[in-house]
Amino acid sequence: MRLFGTAGIRGRLWEKVTPELALKVGMAIGTYKGGTAVVARDGRTSSVMLKNAVISGLLASGMEVLDADLIPTPALAWATREHGDAGVMITASHNPPTDNGIKVFNGDGTEFYVEQEKELEGIVFSGNFRRAEWNEIKTVKPLDVIDDYIGAVLDFVNHETGLKVLYDGANGSGSVLAPYLLREMGAKVISVNAHVDGHFPGRRPEPRYENIAYLGELVKELGVDLAIAQDGDADRIAVFDERGNYVDEDTVIALFAKHYVEENGGGTVVTSINTGSRIDEVVERAGGKVVRVPLGQPHDGIKKYGAIFAGEPWKLVHPKFGNWIDSFVTMALLIKMIDENGPLSKLVSEIPVYYLRKENVPCPDGLKGKVVERAREELEKALGEEIKEILTISGYRFQLRDGSWVLVRPSGTEPKIRVVVEGPSEKRRDELFELAYKTVAKEVEKLKRSARV
Questions:
Q1: pLDDT tens track for 126-137
Q2: Fold of the domain spanning 4-143
Q3: Annotated active-site positions, please?
Q4: pLDDT at 403 (0 to 100)
Q5: Strands lying side by side in the sheet with 246-247
Q6: Quick check: 440 and 361 in contact, CB under 8 A?
Q7: Which entry of 8, 65, 79, 285 is 20 to 30 Å from 451 by CA?
Q8: Which CATH architecture has domain 355-452?
């Protein structure tokens, strides 16, 4: 697709994401959906501009608009289900402050499915918009959802706590909600980077370990029970236990998958192509089944397989609450799990250990497809008879006979190639990672040189 990636439309301001595009997307949504749209934004410097452009397009095509303004993406999804026929979020999520984007939601709070995104793109590029007559143009009304959304999460989790929590909001839109939710639960909250600033002065907005490693020392210094970090629009969540140890993304998914399968006495868990074997082990042990889907499509997987839970790195979906990624439900349920079953370090110790490593190779967007194809060819030759199966969901995942796996895929949101490797030992992981990373980097450089000739 020309506009949509793995998480809506996203890219550098003025290069891909412009007010002109936002206007057309708004008109396309109104043409495609009609009715009432709920619109919100994150705290980026360009988000007010783009929000107003989208609203103009929605009005031009005859939609009524409810403006929720600055709220996190999960709250926008919930508000759309409660109040609208469609939802639009202006955000670039965890991307750098130079970027922005547009996410589109259905009236039930799910992100647009792949087929819907294709249809919306068709309308944008065809220019066949519905244009409302002067007497059909609707109004824009403010919509205050924060208190109601917090109430909905509290009702769903139904738990009070006395835990001491360190919260890092990344200067993102989660800062307007998370500390209040935690305090309403009874938690003692210490906040850092919890004022909204579109320059992200505190840290990079993506909650990767290298961006938030300092929280481990803060946990120990402050004596808190856990630390929670979010990204720019607060759909992603990362956590540290009470000892200051980072809990890796697959372990968080496995914890919740185990919880839901045990609670339901079985069921299907949907996860993405870039997650590891610990999830399969705990789910199968509890009597459930794991299905992998392309990255960015947990809602598609829930719909197709009737999943009781879905998760990809940092992003968890709780279908009993709503079929969207929701870090606030995640943090509230995690606190409940800690209170009922012991400290987070104990919960983590019950999850099997595998050795995973992931890194990005910078790559121009126009070369990503060719690089991945050439890397596949080279890796297929290098790995040879070790290969058990090659999965072709979101790039190429090489399943090896010793239980290891190698994934090479193009990022759907940034000019990068993702390289992910897991092995039964650190030595095996590192050997495979060196092979995969060097292979991808070499192909990037070869194609860049060819492009310059």
A1: 999 999 999 999
A2: Alpha-D-Glucose-1,6-Bisphosphate; Chain A, domain 3 (3.40.120)
A3: 93
A4: 81
A5: 188-192, 164-168, 226-230, 237-240, 246-247
A6: yes
A7: 8
A8: 2-Layer Sandwich (3.30)
